[in-house]
């Protein structure tokens, strides 16, 4: 069985969509105003974004974007840092990884 989609409630669909497009190569295939966006990755996975008044995910909740190398993790980290995102640098944990708070109220893990 294959998981094919996940829905995230976010405080701002447009900024969350732009973040996912800019840093993780997702593409938006459809929207409904400012309240909904359907994002796709290159494997056909669908991540839908729906606007909510408030977003309160559990502290450990996150979505992950695995990378092919530590160098790619470092590249994404540097781009985010240069664009003003605050996060701890990558560390060796269960892989070479870091976490960033995404616009819209959810956390993203980048790892190799």
From TrEMBL:
Matching PROSITE patterns: VOC
Top-level taxonomic group: Bacteria
InterPro entries named among the record's database cross-references: Fosfomycin_Res_Enzymes (IPR051332), Glyas_Bleomycin-R_OHBP_Dase (IPR029068), Glyas_Fos-R_dOase_dom (IPR004360), VOC_core (IPR037523)
Boundaries of every VOC domain copy: 2-112
PANTHER family per record: LYASE, PUTATIVE-RELATED-RELATED, SLL5075 PROTEIN
UniProt name for this protein: Glyoxalase
Organism, scientific name: Alkalihalobacillus alcalophilus ATCC 27647 = CGMCC 1.3604
């Amino acid at each position: 069985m294959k998981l094919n989609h996940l829905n995230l409630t976010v405080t701002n669909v447009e900024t969350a969509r732009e973040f996912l497009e800019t840093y993780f190569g997702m593409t938006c295939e459809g929207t409904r105003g400012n309240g909904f966006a359907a994002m796709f990755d290159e494997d056909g996975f669908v991540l839908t974004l729906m606007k909510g008044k408030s977003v309160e995910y559990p502290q450990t909740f996150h979505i992950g974007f695995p990378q092919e190398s530590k160098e790619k993790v470092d590249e994404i980290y540097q781009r985010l840092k240069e664009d003003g995102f605050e996060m701890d640098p990558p560390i060796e944990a269960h892989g070479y990884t870091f976490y960033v708070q995404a616009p819209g109220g959810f956390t993203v893990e980048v790892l190799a």
